[in-house]
Request: fold
Amino acid sequence: MSTTPTPAPEPIPGTAETTIDLTGVTAYTAGIVRLAQAKGLRPTWGQPHGHTRRIILDAVGPHGAFGSIVIGRTSGKVLRAEVIHGNDAKAPRRAKGTNAVRALLTDVTPSACRQGCNAESSTACRP
Reply:
């Protein structure tokens, strides 16, 4: 009798917990990135630009928050962030400096949207 290991089920797209490499950032920046992860913003590294690096934020579904956090390339400190609260949001929210960025991310409500959501607004996709 052969015992072949059963492959692990593949995660549903957008639900897998991803870990971002935080090498070269300050402890405070790492805390802000962990806060973004806890809010369901799925942070990933974007392309570097000049003296900065960008972390892309993108919650699941069209009504989830998205945006970016800009970090100094050599300092590893958070410089600024922009978060748009879903596609039906009125205006992006911006913050400059580490404390303001932490406050901005603290106000983000985790998305109730699911992958493939086709509701017309964020209120329609809430459970």
In short: Residues 4-16 have pLDDT under 50 and may be disordered. The longest strand covers residues 52-58. Strands lie at 44-45, 52-58, 66-72, 78-84, 93-96. The chain is about 15% helix and 20% strand.
